[in-house]
Amino acid sequence: MKVFCSIVLALFAQFFSSSVYSQTPDTLFAGLPKKEYLTGQFEAAALPVYFTLLPSEFSVGEQRLRAQAAQAFVNMALAAQIQGIELKAVSSTRSFYRQKAIWEDKWNGVRKVDGLDLSKSGLNPSKKAIRIMRYSSMPGTSRHHWGADVDINSVDDAYFKTPEGRLAYEWLLAHAKEFGFCQVYHSKQNSGRSGYEEEKWHWSYLPLALPFTHTYKNLISNQDISGFLGSETAIKIQAIEKYVFGLNPICTE
Q: Please, what is the Cα angle at 109 between 106 and 111, to 5 degrees?
């Protein structure tokens, strides 16, 4: 069975690499200034040479990833499909502006956070930011800006407690690394990891994400995080040190 799966996967990979996912000469930062790219100051749909629209079979809505990451994700989803596991991208590349809308809706109480309207919570700005950042990034600090990260199947932890969700997650733990993907926000229990809570849905394509991470560390500071409500808290709560780099150590090698 394993040999059969490998043969079928190889055929699918060859098909996609020779058609939908054939890559053109690329530059890591899609021809943009590095700081602009890393903080999401662009729209992926406007850069079709670098960002590929995932097939509807493997996505919910329009989802775009960098071409190399898109091909790897499709190959992974095909391999899972052969074994009866469904993998679909539910969120992928996200611009600064989209992240700002998500963040400010939570800041202003349009969207509740853990059932709480933060605009009526009485929390000071730093505590509001920390509450939002259990699962959501400040604009300019999200890995989703880079086009190498994807949320798979659901962003609700309850899904991963269902039989279907458990099977999908167990498959990813066993096989995602074969396709270059790593769960960047693993359990914080006994790990010493800071920042976001565990996200079983969030997987990063390391061949691209690693150079992006290294460049971000050398180029971006908390002083660069601005342009949205609550951005002044980035320095106080050490948004970059504790969140951008609060990573699963096996995803940093």
A: 55
Q: What is the rounded CA–CA span in Å between residue 222 and residue 33?
A: 18
Chain centroid to CA 185? 10
Residues 249 and 192: their CA atoms lie apart, in Å, by 10
Torsion angle in degrees (nearest 10) through CA of 173, 178, 148, 44: -110
Q: How many CB atoms lie within 10 A of CB 87?
A: 22
Is the pTM for the entire model greater than 0.85?
yes
**Strands (E) located in 125-235:** 149-152, 181-183, 202-205
CB 185 within 8 A of CB 196: yes
Residue 25 lies in domain: 2-251
CATH number at residue 183: 3.30.1380.10
pLDDT digits (tens, 9 = 90+) for 57-109: 999 999 999 999 999 999 999 999 999 999 999 999 999 999 999 999 999 99
Burial of 7 per CB tally in 10 Å (0-12, 13-18, 19+): exposed
